[in-house]
Amino acid sequence: YWTTNPGLGSLNTIGTGITTTSATFDPTVQGMTRGGTVYFTAKAVLNTGEESALSPAYSWVVPPATPPPPVLTAVTVSGPSSVNEGGTGTYTATGTWDNGTTAAISPTWSENSSYATISSGGVLTASAVTSNQTATVTATYGGLTGTRSVTIVDVPAVLTAEIGRASCRERECTVV
User: Fold this and answer.
1) How far apart are CA 164 and CA 112, in angstroms?
2) Cα→Cα distances 113→9, 50, 94, 127, 135, Å
3) pLDDT for 99 beyond 70
4) In whole angstroms, what is the distance from residue 149 CA to residue 113 CA?
5) CA 126 vs CA 89, 108, 115, 155: distances in Å
6) What does the pLDDT look like over 137-173, one tens digit per residue?
7) Residue 168 forms beta bridges with which residues?
8) What are the residues whose beta carbons fall under 8 Å from the beta carbon of 62, sequence distance 6 or more?
9) DSSP β-bridge partners for residue 151
10) Does 120 have pLDDT greater than 90?
11) Among 66, 80, 121, 165, which is most buried by a count of CB atoms within 10 Å?
């Protein structure tokens, strides 16, 4: 092949002794500029040693290199840092890739506490507790995990009514 105009430059060999009608090669290894034009020509050599003339040049634009797919480098969990006992909290996960992009992901959710459960949609439901408890919410995606520490909050009971004293006189009672 020629790397510039087929009438100029020197001929670079890609293959010799090829018995098929095509050859596979890596343009970068051959020194071809991606996006540039190169010109191919060929000649045949018979087993008797007789050589043919060079074929006319055929131009080819070397395709740009296809970048490798991005690789997931991190999983981040977002959501409340505390959930009241008997309440719920919704968690989301974001993936970060080596090319700098981020996107919402749908991970496998889990938690490590007997005081809470988490659904496949990332909704944590807290159980009743007698004191504040810590749980860890984990999102697993693409072989990586992200975590978030969550406090299950013990909510003190609130007095909502008081039973008064009753006094009764001759079939009539009054609650004080």
Assistant:
1) 46
2) 72, 82, 23, 10, 5
3) yes
4) 11
5) 8, 19, 6, 12
6) 999 999 999 999 999 999 987 766 666 665 666 666 6
7) 173
8) 27, 32, 33, 34, 35, 36, 37, 38
9) 82, 134
10) yes
11) 80
